[in-house]
Design brief:
This protein has 11 helices and 16 strands. With 324 residues, the chain is of the alpha/beta class. Strands 3, 5, 6, 7, 8, 15 and 16 form a 7-stranded mixed sheet that branches. Strands 11-10-9-12-13-14 form a 6-stranded parallel sheet, sandwiched between helices. It has a 3-stranded antiparallel sheet with strand order 2-1-4, with no helix packed on it.
């Protein structure tokens, strides 16, 4: 079967198509016939830090598709069922997935929309609900709001009854985000934007901030927080892995700082994250209250073009690859 791998090449990453054997369903696993998968910026930055590639590995991190086969011990899914999942190696025609990472696909979603859900929205859920402890009526600041996780976080925050402030280096992206429900947009690529956040929140500051950009946005996010605010660090697409911390602000306002990453999660922790997402956000997809924002869809043999498109950073929401 056709499969795509990712490798380091000249300090960057590149895709490599291969013909590999079709997976078999081991105990506790499901083999999915892949219909679509989505591009995830973090995977393309695999030359940074612990994302480094010592050797090529299967590419793609989330998918939608049909159950092709089930292993012994699998009780929650049956052959032919439409599903979506987080998985390593989603850019393949068939993929073997542990049952605890598989979710039923909501009826209102297309294959492409469902493929945009697992990574972006599970990350948004962990950031907003698990660590952010979001509440209705709160102000949420999203640094890097036009990204896949950024748009997902905006939609999930609005579903929770919060008000959203988003930042972007593109005025055009901010206008689009406002049409999707964002309350306030701030045009910035870093620096101190806290005055605009304080003005939007009546001087109180944001209750919760998600930093999807990296070190360049950390000081501004920290300074923008209200008393007992929460700051969740999700990504570092700016390549800045360090930043100064204003200890007086952290101490005086009792700020909580957390990080969200899948790098060191145990299988049990991944399973719990999936269950919590299904409990809190899946009803919104089933009811059609949240529909993933798809910027563009590419064919499987256009993966290199899809990668180049994402790296240009002109998209809003998710870029999806149609596999079958």
């Amino acid at each position: 079967m056709k499969s795509c791998w990712i490798k380091s090449e000249g300090g960057n990453t590149a895709f490599d198509f291969r013909d590999i054997p079709m997976p078999q369903a081991k105990p506790g696993e499901i083999v999915v016939r892949t219909r679509a998968s989505s591009m995830n910026r973090g995977e393309l930055l695999a030359s940074i830090g612990w994302h480094g590639l010592d050797k090529p590995k299967p590419a793609g991190r989330d998918l939608s598709g049909e159950v092709h086969a089930v292993g012994t011990g699998v009780t929650g899914f049956k052959v032919g069922e439409r599903v979506m999942a987080r998985v390593h190696g989603a850019f393949s025609e068939y993929v073997s997935v542990a049952e605890h990472l598989v979710m039923p696909m909501p009826d209102p979603l297309s294959w492409e929309q469902a493929a945009a859900v697992p990574i972006a929205f599970v990350t948004a859920h962990v950031s907003l609900y698990t660590y952010g402890r979001i509440k209705a009526g709160e102000w949420v600041l999203i640094a890097g709001a036009a990204s896949g996780v950024g748009v997902a976080s905006m939609q999930a925050a609005k579903y929770a009854g919060a008000r959203v402030i988003g930042t972007s280096g593109s005025a055009g992206k901010l206008e689009k985000l406002k049409s999707l429900g964002m309350d306030v947009g701030i045009h910035t690529r870093g620096g101190d934007f806290s005055a605009q956040v304080l003005d939007a929140t009546g001087g109180r500051g944001a209750n919760l901030a998600l930093n999807l950009v990296g070190g360049s946005m950390f000081p501004g996010c920290l300074k923008s927080l209200a008393n007992q605010g929460r700051l969740v660090i999700v990504g570092y697409v700016d390549g800045m892995m360090t930043s100064e911390i204003d200890l007086e602000t952290v101490h005086g306002k009792r700020i909580e700082i957390s990080g969200v990453s899948n790098a060191y999660l145990t299988p049990a922790e991944r399973a719990e994250g999936t269950r919590a997402f299904v409990r809190d956000l899946m009803p919104a997809f089933r009811a059609g209250r949240i529909l993933p924002v798809i910027d563009r869809v590419f064919a499987f043999d256009e993966l290199a073009a899809a990668k180049s498109y994402v790296e240009k950073d002109t998209h809003i929401g998710k870029v999806v690859v149609r596999i079958a």
